[in-house]
Design goal:
The protein is an all-alpha fold and 59 residues long. It is built from two helices and no strands. 0% of the residues are buried.
């Protein structure tokens, strides 16, 4: 297949792509930040709890 045909096909496929709006990107960003924060907090609490238990056992 020739390079020109490949480029033409790539451009045709790009016209079919639906890019997210600014609001959708912002909403997804906020959702990711919230989920990561909740998981990080949960893991920090589990770590604190487990280290406290280990300190009592070893200590």
């Amino acid at each position: 297949m020739k390079l020109n045909t490949h480029i033409r096909n790539a451009k045709a496929e790009l016209t079919k792509v639906i890019f997210p709006t600014k609001g959708q990107v912002k909403q997804a960003y906020i959702a990711v930040v919230i989920v990561v924060s909740v998981i990080a907090t949960f893991l920090a609490l589990v770590d604190l709890f487990m280290s406290s238990i280990m300190s009592l056992i070893l200590g």
